[in-house]
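debug: dumping io for the single-chain case to check the tokenizer round-trip. Nothing else runs in this session.
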Amino acid sequence: MPEYHEQVYQPEEDTYLLLKYALKEAGPEDKILEVGTGSGLIAMEMSKISEKTIAIDINPYACISAKKSGVEVIRCDLLSCINTRFDLILFNPPYLPTVSEEKIDDWLEYALDGGEDGRKTIYKFADMLGDIMSKTGRCLLLVSSLTGVDEVSDYFSRLGLLSLIVAEEKIEDEKLYILRIFHDMCSFNE
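debug: decoded output
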């Protein structure tokens, strides 16, 4: 079993749920990007399917962990360093609703803190997604019932992106969903 740094999000049920559907979605010709790679587990598995797999994370310890797993990784904040389009984008975002008194002010917080409603990072990601997703591209995004799947879907819709729930799984006091997000071809601008 690999060793994990205490400042890196360790694979949990949400990681494995996203991985399960990413394995079904990915193809050998896909150019794949995992956002917020953490340990690098998902990107490592994707690189076995497509040589064109890259991971990004803002956390320097996560980048080191992913690199040790053989993952090509870039340190950056969400999609700010990306200037090309991808066919498959994977993201298990920080989705826990967090008020200021709960903040822990360390690198692990980047993997957990979704802002007061749990959607802060998801919305920031959504605002950039359409610019890096290829015309026929798709994104698999993990969302929690704590965050509000309808609110997240509505936000993507306002940006000209369609979303479908392709999986759901109950984990303790929450339900996890995988959204498959893609361009509304009526509003796609290349």
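debug: round-trip ok. Residues 74 and 81 are 8 Å apart (CA to CA).
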